[in-house]
Design a protein that fits this description.
Shape: globular
Radius of gyration: 29 Å
Largest sheet: 5 strands, antiparallel
Number of domains: 2
Helix content: 40-55%
Strand order of the largest sheet: 1-2-7-8-9
Structural class: alpha/beta
Length: 266
């Protein structure tokens, strides 16, 4: 009899333990579901904030025809956003650039000792869509990735590109590159290849004029496209701090607006 009572008591205890576990799992699932809903709401509000930043950028372009990286914008009720601007023409488009310039960028003139042929074969099989594909090319100097891009029309902005990029172009001697940098710092950028030639010494001018047709075709002096990346978030909402929504747009800077040609969200 005692044995039967003992077994019954153990069974009840096991049942209570099991029920406690089930209740705990249910409560945990409810909390997880609640946090998932909060995270979704936070990301939605963050996306609205990022879209607001894009609208602010459009307005600033319309008013000033100039766009720079923005400090954090306070949109109210904890919502904030910021954006960054990049000029794809400040780098070398690995998909469209002429092989001779690509050789300078990735080989620094020593074509036999680099992976240029493999890189050219890679882009011939179809447009390269991720710089990780470039990084995976055996023998490629990883430092070359710093001057390469997949965005843009293939032209190079003389008033935005770094000296490392400009020195890869035939005809541009260090004097010409230094002159472009000096004028950029002074806020008086060069407007054309011909204008640049007028400010150079005879030797540097002769080098530029020897490649004049190539430089006119390759160089621009204002950005034909801009990449605008806006991030939006909500400060500390529902324990979801750190969640950001990002919108990246590629735009054509027109006089009255920024015309969007590509948009990505994450």
């Amino acid at each position: 009899m005692r044995s039967a009572h003992g077994f019954a008591l153990i069974a009840v205890l096991w049942m209570l333990t099991a029920l406690s576990g089930i209740v705990g799992v249910a409560v945990g699932a409810a909390r997880l579901g609640q946090q998932t809903s909060v995270n979704r709401l936070t990301l939605t509000r963050g996306r609205w904030a990022a879209e607001a930043c894009l609208a602010i950028a459009q307005a600033r372009w319309w008013m000033a025809h100039r766009l720079v990286d923005a400090d954090t914008e306070d949109l109210g009720r904890g919502a904030r956003c910021a954006w960054e601007v990049a000029d794809p023409a400040a780098l070398i488009n690995v998909n469209t650039v002429e092989p001779e310039i690509l050789a300078m960028a990735v080989c620094r003139g020593n074509r036999s000792a680099c992976a240029l042929d493999s890189l050219l074969h890679l882009r011939e099989t179809g447009p390269i869509t991720d710089l990780a594909q470039v990084a995976s090319v055996t023998g490629l100097d990883s430092s070359a990735l710093a001057v390469l891009t997949l965005d843009g029309l293939g032209s190079i902005n003389a008033n935005a590109a770094s000296p490392a990029v400009l020195l890869d172009l035939p005809g541009l001697m260090p004097e010409a590159v230094a002159r472009l940098a000096d004028r950029r710092r002074a806020g008086r950028p060069i407007a054309s290849v011909a204008a640049l030639a007028e400010e150079l010494s005879p030797a540097a001018r002769a080098s530029l004029l020897a490649h004049y047709a190539d430089l006119v075709r390759q160089l621009v002096f204002a950005p034909p496209l801009l990449r605008l990346t806006a991030r939006g978030w909500v400060d500390g909402f529902g324990g979801s701090a750190g969640l950001h929504a990002t919108i990246e747009v590629l735009v054509v800077p027109l006089p009255a607006r920024l015309a969007i040609v590509r948009q990505r969200l994450w």
